Amino acid sequence: MTKRTESRGKRKHEPWQGATRALLLGCVAELYLLMIHKYYIYGNLDQVLAWDSYLRVSLWLGLGVAVLGGVLLYLCRRKPGWKRAVSGMVLELGAFMAVTGGLVTRYYASPITLLAVAVPAAALMAMLWYLYDRECAWGLIVLGLDLAVLWICRKGMGNFLWEKRVLVGAVIFLICLAVLAFLTAKLAKSRGMLGKLRLLGENFDTMPIYAACGVSAVTTVLALVSSVAAYYCIYIVAVLLFALAVYYAIRQL
Predict the structure, then answer these.
(1) pLDDT for 64-112, tens place per residue?
(2) CA angle 182, 149, 209 (to 5 degrees)
(3) Which among 117, 111, 120, 114 has a CA at the least distance from the CA of 41?
(4) Inter-axis angle of helices 45-75 and 82-107, to 10 degrees?
(5) 159: which residues sit within 8 A by CB, 6+ positions away?
(6) Contact 63, 94 (CB under 8 A)
(7) Looking at CB atoms within 10 Å, which of 5, 71, 194, 207 has the fewest?
(8) 186 has a pLDDT exceeding 90
(9) Angle of helix 207-225 relative to helix 227-251, nearest 10 degrees?
(10) Is 42 helix (H, G, I), strand (E, B) or coil?
(11) pLDDT of amino acid 111
(12) Alpha helix segments (H runs only) across the chain
């Protein structure tokens, strides 16, 4: 086998390795949340007291682990391989442990539901980032975030307590969409380069990003106007998300 063939095979396996790491981290994080839910939220008195102590210690322990992982990742930044991958996983798990410990000890059960949804969503987005072309990954991520925004708008608009917060969040999301579209146009002119940093492929397709940003902007505005419109927009975006994922999965075979 020539060096060129070996290099091509290595590049082919890198996305699957990244996606596997994302799946593994997501499973570990979700299992950790389930343990907190069982033993800290709905456990008996002894379990609750024990886990309260564990979580308070995990805040500082997680910070230490994250710092250690960050140092190792910096030392291995120019050495692709299992050492850099493990360093990244240590950093991410340490940060997750610290954030979870801080949120749960401060707000008790409220963050668990949010984290239980955010963890698989983040793992799925990471897997899309590794497995798909960058422009398609961006499009899928934008549509996935749009689904979350539509659901929040449908539940929060009309609610006296949450309406203003939901409105502010939706406006921030729309601004982010505009920034992403502007950045895409700029990258198209510079062949995927932002200064000396390559963010997208040299001949990337701008259409998935523009389409995702346009659809997300229109559906978000409709969701702010009507909860009924938000309900139907959720299904429309979900169908588009599935269709785009299938199309690019077949295209990349």
Answers:
(1) 888 888 888 777 777 666 677 777 788 888 888 888 888 888 877 777 8
(2) 30
(3) 111
(4) 140
(5) 166
(6) yes
(7) 5
(8) no
(9) 160
(10) coil
(11) 77
(12) 3-36, 45-75, 82-107, 110-131, 134-156, 163-189, 207-225, 227-251
Q: Which residue type sits at 171?
A: V
Centre a 10 Å sphere on the Cβ of residue 42 and count the other Cβ atoms it contains. 11
C-alpha distances in Å from residue 54, one per residue of 50, 57, 105, 114, 149: 6, 5, 10, 21, 34
Residue 196 CB: number of other CB atoms within 10 A? 5
DSSP character at residue 37: I
Tokens representing 143 are 């549509």
Q: Among positive and negative, which fits the CA dihedral 172, 127, 99, 149?
A: positive
Q: d(Cα 73, Cα 84) in Å, to the nearest integer?
A: 6
Amino acid identity for residue 19 in this structure: A
Tokens (6 digits) for 46: 């002894």
Compute the Cα dihedral for 139, 143, 146, 148 and give only its sign.
negative
Q: What are phi and psi of 192, to 5 degrees?
A: 85, 5
Cα 203 off chain centre by: 25
Q: For position 29, what pLDDT does the model report? A: 86
Burial class of residue 81 (count of CB atoms within 10 Å of its CB; 0-12, 13-18, 19+): exposed
pLDDT tens, residue by residue, 33-48:
888 888 888 888 888 8
Check if the beta carbon of residue 136 is closer than 8 Å to that of residue 248: yes
Question: How many of the other CB atoms lie within 10 Å of CB of 112?
Answer: 19
Tell me the CA end-to-end span of the chain in Å, nearest whole number.
23
Cα–Cα distance between 217 and 211 in angstroms, integer?
10
Torsion of CA 51, 55, 57, 61, to 10 degrees: 130
